[in-house]
Structure formats: structure tokens, C-alpha cells
Amino acid sequence: MRAEFDDSLVTGNEMIDSQHKELIDKINGLLESCELGKDKIAAVKTLEYLADYTDFHFGEEEKLQEEIDYPGIKEHKEEHKKLIKVVEELHEMLEEEEGPTDAFVAQVNENVIQWLYRHIKGFDRSVAEYKNMRGNSEML
């Protein structure tokens, strides 16, 4: 299963949406590296690149939340920590195996792609809506 950025994932915040598109590209790159001969080294490098980009993206989201004084920032950071832990577990799984297994790919689909979809549609969309409301003070 490939991740796909569609209209249901649009938050309305250009920076966040463009980073989500990039994040989805990185996830798909990981899945492609798993398919291409099940090369462990390529999969590990791609997963590390995904982890680095995830850290960058989460930092940007959290900085935005601090700037707009988002009331749900604590819960949002906790959700980010969950995905970081999942990526660490995936890294361990890759290191323990000879290469990316079907079980590894299933974990990426279930614990990364599905998590990301839920997170964007819930947590990230609420941040964008809050930011828009703060920008339109008559709505508050």
C-alpha cells in the first residue's frame, strides 16, 4: 500500500501541507526500497532519512503551535512522540532481520501510514483551524 496525499489530508496551512506531502514521499520511498530486492542497507538508510525528516517536521509543527498559543500543544507533542517511538521500533526490526520483511512492510502500513492519516485529519487539521480562527478575531 502506498501513502497518498489527497484532499482529505489538506489542513489549509500551506507549510504543513507541503511538509505532509514530503513526508508521504519519504514513506513511499521507504516502501519502494523494501520492494527493490529487499535490500537491508537501502531500507535502513531510507528509514533514517524518514526519521530525520519526521523530526524536522514535528519541530516545525510544534514551533507553529507555540507561536499561536495552541491549547492542545501538550497532547499534540505526545502524539508526535508515539510516531518517533514507532520509527525507532521499525529501525530495530530492520536491524534484527536480514532485510525488510513482509511483517516490516505491514508495520509501516499500519503504524506509520495509518497513524499519519489519523494524525493529519485530527490533530493537524485542528491546529490549522485554530490558527485560522485566531487570524479572524471576529470568529472567536
Salient structural properties:
140 residues, mainly alpha, 77% helix
Descriptive account of the structure:
This protein is mainly alpha-helical. 77% of the residues lie in helices and 0% in strands. The N and C termini lie far apart (41 Å).
Q: What is the string of SSEs from the N terminus onward?
A: HHHH
Question: Biggest sheet: strands, sense, closure?
Answer: none
Q: Cα-atom Rg, whole angstroms?
A: 16 Å
What count of helical segments does DSSP give? Answer: 4
Alpha-carbon distance between the two ends? 41 Å
Uncertain runs: none
pLDDT averaged over residues: 89
Shape: elongated
What is the SS-derived class?
mainly alpha
The number of distinct β-strands equals: 0
Strand content: under 5%
Q: What is the helical fraction, as a range of percent?
A: over 70%
Layout: helices, strands, pairs:
Blueprint: H1 14-35, H2 40-67, H3 73-96, H4 102-135
Helix pairs in contact: 1-2, 1-4, 2-3, 3-4
Summed up:
Helix content is 77%, strand content 0%. The protein is built from four helices and no strands. Helix 1 runs antiparallel to helix 2.
